[in-house]
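pasting HTH cro/C1-type domain-containing protein for the record, 270 residues
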Amino acid sequence: MSHHVRPLDPDRSTADWVAHELRRLRQQRGATLKELSEITGKHLSLFSKIESGETPLREADADKIDKAWETEGLLGRIIRTGRTRHSSQWEDEIDAIASVAAQARIWSLGWVPALLQTPEYARASFVAAGHTDVEGAVQRRVRLLETLTRKPAPLVRAIIDRSALELPVGTPEEYRAQLDRLIGLAADLTIRVVERRSGPHVGREGSFLIYTTSDGKDYPYTSTVGPGRLIRDPSEVATYRVSFDRISDIALNRADSLTVLKQIRECVDD
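structre below
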């Protein structure tokens, strides 16, 4: 059976860009998928999926192909460039993944996690961040919040830095409502807190989340100023799994975290 090859759009994503160049280079050389298999030591069926844009090319394999075909590092450079390029397309993709994800693992350093925010908190955070289209961003966030009410709902594990919880966002009423929402959600979701006394740790590098779909695929997404970055390279995906586990190791348990949430909430009323 022939493998269906969808049209590639190099402007759409790094995966398509690499797939386009890989296919172009291979056809230019008159090479076969078998030759790619021999260069990398991977099964040739993998490269059929890579050239269709279905599976991303790993950086290590790109470097092997670049060396064998003397491309002056073209494929590897594209992958490394893609890691530093923030695309609004990724934001669309991660929203689509969120709508069907079976699990969400979240580490939040600076804000209450987007998935757990109230619309009012979200609006205040967008205003504070100088977002150019606040209402459009709020509408997008509200659609994301619907993820928690769909059936079946995703399994959510959120770890939040205490400083993010203690940061008053919006009016006092909006801030209190956000804390109340977290306290209410804590009965059904895993919400854990990392205290300041935990000291330096891998999570200080920045916030990220990992969506897992029903087929077991993980999709990490990093938060930054502007659109975030969707991680596709399998080796890089693995580092986010490890990072989340390491942060989990130093977080308070659910019961102690709920106590912290209630203490912070009480302080707002003082």
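The chain has two domains: 14-84, 88-269.
The chain has a mean pLDDT of 88.
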